[in-house]
């Protein structure tokens, strides 16, 4: 007698963005299992995932693999829910929530949540589309939580939710647009393994942080969006932790705090701040004479409001010769018109016109406001054999370039 096979009708419809409706819990397709080793199936699924850079297309491919056979189901499901984006209050959020409650929560390693506005908790039929409905306490593999896509209207309620739900010492990376204050401190105290932290700013009111051994003793990478205020909290925080990578959204008054932690930094990202041409020389001098151990540097955006960009701009960068460990840096220029400015001279200035250098890559971005406008992105790469070579980059953003170099230098910490 021919054996019948039950196939789900939902396999014939278009799948949702992050689907899991085709099975309840860990139910798998009712088809015979292969005799191939599990390691081979895992390699097949991972190779498919790695070959598709677009997240939406990758999720759809994993979805169809999940429906193919019993052998592929568990591995495809594991990768499908390894990195998720949860947009609070949307229909897709409800489908993700259902899947996580049905058993997929154990696969989640990183989660990005957006649109966290209004009340954190909510009752009724729409509750499952809310962040508070997620089984956070079941996400035992969760290592990265990103809440920085939203301005939090009820910070104390949200922080209390994650403090009570996320297992202690589980996170390696945590990002949120909240201040460092007495509300968030209890949560940070129970996450001692965080290596990469992003906060909005330090609170105006003094906070008495515990001893370094208790608060974020493993923090190596720190991002602060707003550094326009002078606080003792910031100085002590930077000084007492092993931070080697620092991102700042503003360089305003940063020299006031600089001496407490400049020497410990190996990577510095100031690309979100701006400095005009008149202050450029002093700005670079402060960096080059204090952060002497930098290996990677994203300079502030250089702007000039003169009608024509000064042709002397490249010469100012000779001060970076003092950074003997520097391997890569990037800078962006904005002006009304280019005039006689030639940014391609900067690599020669930095390497002292042909002298062997540690610098291997320089990413330069030039924007013009008048005329046709537009943007030019050039990457200069150096090898002892060929010297400096140039390539124009059409789709390379400074943030992506910086992140790539952090990984090359083993300093991404995420």
TrEMBL record:
Region (Disordered): 1-36
Organism from which the protein derives: Sistotremastrum niveocremeum HHB9708
Name recorded for this polypeptide: F-box domain-containing protein
Family matches, as InterPro entries: LRR_dom_sf
Biased composition (Basic residues): 1-12
Positions with biased composition (Basic and acidic residues): 20-33
